[in-house]
Amino acid sequence: MKNNPKGYVSFVLHAHLPFVHHPESEDYLEEQWLFEAISETYIPLLLNFEKLVNEHVDFRITMSMTPPLLNMLDNKLLQERYIKYLQKHIELSEKEIKRNEDNKTVQNLSKYYFDRYSHDLHVFKDIYKCNIIQGFKHFQDIGVLEIITCGATHGYFPILYVNEKTVRAQIAVGVQCYEKYFGRKPRGIWLPECGYVPEADKYLREFGIEYVITETHGILYANPTPIYGTFAPIVSPDGVVAFGRDMESSRQVWSSINGYPGDFNYREWYRDIGYDAPYDYIKPYIATNGARVPTGIKYYRITGKDCPKDFYNPVWAWDSINKQAGHFFDCRERQILEAAKFTQNPPIILCPYDAELYGHWWYEGPDWLYTLFKKIYYDKCDFDLITPSEYIDKYPNMQVSTPCRSSWGANGYSEVWLNQSNDYVHRHLHVAGDRMVELANLYPNENNETSLGRALNQCARELLLAQSSDWLFIITNGTMVDYAKKRIKDHIGRFTKLYYQIKNNNIDDDFLNKINEIDCIFPEIDYNIYK
């Protein structure tokens, strides 16, 4: 790290997927969300962190790893199914090598996918023993990665706070899950959907959370107005530090018009052999109902709107990676040198992104991070990489100001999670939240081994799973809507059925066992968090 840098850049990647676990059937395509993310995002990030460490590059990065994701990564059934997923992709890419014998360009790409999926299998089984959580924990333990937590199931605080005990439970379970997997307390939290409400601060402090990540306008419209904008964190009256997203660096990566992932040399996400290959040939590798779906094997680059699609060229992609890492580097240098003229402490530029952008949506993203981090380490510049915790430790004095109620997403004020397409859900969530608090107070400290204790804990799980903001997001965006609606209906239905069985002292153990096998998140949960 540099001596007395003029400023800092802090990357925060939000690694999150909703809890999808269907032991009753292998036909749910939604389970592949996890498998794609492991192969395209989580393993590539781990491999690049390892390369940087082995090359003695001192870097810093922050990641949230949400409780649903951690529970899925730790699930034996899903680990087994991921191995089957890889074996199927290895088999398909091997067939592709033969099918494309007459086109050496495509055949080389087929070999590339064969090697990549084979390596994923080796890394997952042989290096990490099916437990990539330990891989991330290792990098946290050696000091290059800071892992932060999230709400238990990504429940959206600006709506849930109607009953504050449901927000408290989201925070409590999120912290408990983090401690289980990482053996320490989290210092920071990624607020689900960056949804900030001041009412949550007292619960964040209760469970030891020091800082949150907010959307840009959460800082810019804070009260009183922050002197340094998003170039410095603020601290709320309750003592929670808030870091705001930097708009300029976000646009350079996120923008659908001129963001880096749209470079014509990068891999085209939408063009996939699941849609292109002959139907009878590809049928064993797509949906069991015969619907064509992506396989992950993609041969084309983005190319450009007015050009016929051209084949992907990894060498050209690396050329774009190097150019764009240089561009990002130069832009942050200029930004920091300008901001440093006006800030009391060295400015911090916070760069928060969905982790799955890196690798899944932007295939080259993990390699871009690797290249950028090496460039920051080796090239002459006036800034360093830093984690939010390190920045707080270095510069503990900051302006007291209450962040604005806010979120990220379209228009920045909850519209994605509360609109005409999904507003009907919230009355059910609020009723279930009130009923969960009622149960916790009616039956305090029940033994977890009794039917009643197990039913109360399962009610807590069903409520948390129903509260996942992902289902509301999916309904708004119009993708996999039937599945999202089914999940809400299933969890509220199971909760309600158990609620009445508990109240009537008539618990159906067969029903309880069945739903506990499916909705097995948070095995150590204690319903008393709702008291």
Structure description:
The longest helix is centred in the middle third of the chain and has 26 residues, at 314-339. The chain contains 20 helices and nine strands. Helix content is 49%, strand content 8%. Strands 1, 2, 3, 4, 5, 6, 7, 8 and 9 form a nine-stranded mixed beta sheet that branches. The model has no long low-confidence stretch (mean pLDDT 96). It starts with 6 loop residues before the first strand and ends in a 13-residue tail after the last helix. The protein is an alpha/beta fold and 531 residues long. The chain is globular and about 70 Å long. α1 (32-54) links the parallel β1 (7-15) and β2 (61-65). It has three domains: 7-72 and 133-267 and 314-411, 7-stranded beta/alpha barrel; 75-130 and 277-311, no CATH class; 418-530, Up-down Bundle (immunoglobulin/albumin-binding domain-like), CATH 1.20.1430.10.
